[in-house]
Specification:
By secondary structure, this protein is an alpha/beta fold. It folds into two domains: 3-85 and 200-339 and 351-397, FAD/NAD(P)-binding domain; 97-186, no CATH class. It has twelve helices and 21 strands. The protein has helices spanning 10-21, 63-69, 107-118, 121-124, 132-140, 142-157, 177-186, 209-217, 265-272, 351-363, 371-374, 381-397; strands at residues 3-6, 27-31, 42-45, 48-51, 58-59, 78-82, 85-88, 93-95, 199-203, 223-225, 231-233, 238-239, 243-244, 247-250, 259-261, 276-284, 294-296, 306-308, 320-325, 337-345, 367-369. The strands form five sheets. It has a seven-stranded mixed beta sheet with strand order 8-7-17-18-19-16-20. Helix 1 runs parallel beside helix 12, helix 5 crosses helix 6 and helix 9 crosses helix 10 (351-363). The protein starts with a strand and ends with a helix.
């Protein structure tokens, strides 16, 4: 075929539908699972949908993305929400992000945070550290680092944090002593940008996975399910020894390939440099007793790092689900659970160099990486669709 797409997640489905829009018929998607959606799939648990890939929502801030997706699931089938997310610090629960919500803490805690922020290296002119565990207090102050950022990231990644790079944290703003003080005095958020999904959509009657099933429905005859892609010949652009294409779009994890032909030793080394985490999704049927949509938990005594309260965004449902790094999960727990082997790409120290070489080398052979796993970036689904739409336009212009 002309185009071969690996993976029927948001990236692959978007490209395939854009190809069909353009009148292209010579394309095929290969999907390992028996249904489309990737990490955005949903399952019925306790009579209502639960998103087995963790927490996925449609951000309202990308109108072009939403206009495209509403073709498959019209706007009237979605509810809209203003995000309520919190951080549970044990003694106190405050709004996210923490640097904008210190004013919600008791006065003594506010003073401790203000002193720590005043001494933060980014505010005193100290050289920027290279190690993650030094960079966080340099950027946010010792108090935010100790109470939230360090323990939360330790739980989420379940690895030595100094093996993570700091390049992905550059977007974090410096925490201003003056602005934090004004916020504490006025008892309101004085600064800080709104978090991602500050406003979001979620289906009224379905789980988030319904959207991607409908996109796949439009592609009948162009998706083969149950195909475990594990071999790629770069020179001839052949997958699993039987699927050949002029152009290959890879949206699955590069680590899935057991056999790579036609690449050098450095390419294989770069593949091994791509790290990932596995996550267990676990369902709890009790009332969470909160109006939040989700909460972050830095407490090391709790196995999970995040809880998502479906009863507050999925109509008619009860209970909530949690996300836990597989290395921390209690596998003897009898609650309903689902394991995502590939959940989050890890921003390791060598990742940028490794993925750059992979994408450049593969691109020169007309094999393109796209999406969370093809580009090894922690993209949300709406960002993935945006990237896939842009990629599709460039692809069709070729």
């Amino acid at each position: 075929m002309k185009y071969l797409i690996l993976g029927a997640g948001p990236a692959g489905l978007t490209v395939a539908n854009r190809l069909m829009d353009a009148g292209e018929d010579s394309f095929l998607i290969l999907e390992k699972e028996q249904e489309a959606g990737g990490l955005c799939r949903s399952a019925e648990v306790d009579g209502k949908p639960l998103d087995i890939g963790g927490g996925h929502f449609l951000d309202v801030r990308r109108p072009k993305v939403n206009e495209f997706l509403f073709r498959f699931m019209p706007r009237e089938e979605w509810s809209s929400f203003t995000r309520i997310s919190r951080i549970d610090l044990g003694k106190y629960v405050i709004d996210y992000p923490m640097e904008s919500s210190i004013w919600q803490l008791p006065e003594e805690e506010q003073i401790a945070h203000l002193l720590a922020i005043a001494k933060a290296g980014c505010n005193t002119g100290e050289p920027k550290p290279e190690k993650f565990s030094d960079w966080i207090p340099w950027k946010l102050g010792e108090k935010i680092a100790a109470d939230y950022m360090i323990p939360y990231n330790s739980k989420m990644w379940s690895m030595n944090l100094n093996k993570l790079g700091t390049y992905w944290l550059e977007k974090l703003p410096n925490v201003s002593f003056e602005d934090t003080l004004r916020s504490c005095l006025s008892r309101k958020q004085y600064f800080g940008s709104l978090p991602g999904h500050a406003e979001f959509y979620y289906p009224k009657k379905y789980g988030y996975g319904e959207l991607w099933l409908r996109m796949a429905e439009k592609l009948k005859g162009h998706i083969e399910y149950g195909v475990d892609v594990n071999e790629l010949d770069f020179g001839r652009r052949i997958v699993n020894g039987q699927y050949r294409a002029n152009i290959i779009i890879n949206t699955i994890p590069w680590r899935c390939f057991e056999t790579l032909n036609g690449v050098d030793e450095r390419f294989n080394d770069c593949i091994l440099d791509l790290k990932y985490t596995s996550v267990v999704i676990k369902y709890f049927d009790e009332d969470p007793g909160t109006d939040a949509h989700w909460t972050y938990f830095p407490d090391e005594k709790l196995e999970y790092h995040r809880a998502l309260y479906r009863c507050n965004f999925c109509a008619g449902s009860k209970g909530y689900w949690t996300e836990t790094n597989l290395n921390r999960a209690d596998r003897k727990d009898k609650r309903w659970s689902y394991v995502n082997k590939y959940a989050y790409p890890v921003n390791s120290i060598r990742k940028r160099e490794a993925i750059s070489y992979i994408l450049e080398t593969a691109g020169n052979r007309k094999i393109f990486g796209l999406g969370r796993w093809g580009e090894w970036e922690h993209y949300n689904s709406d960002t993935t669709v945006e990237k896939a739409l842009e990629f599709s336009e460039r692809l069709l212009m070729r």
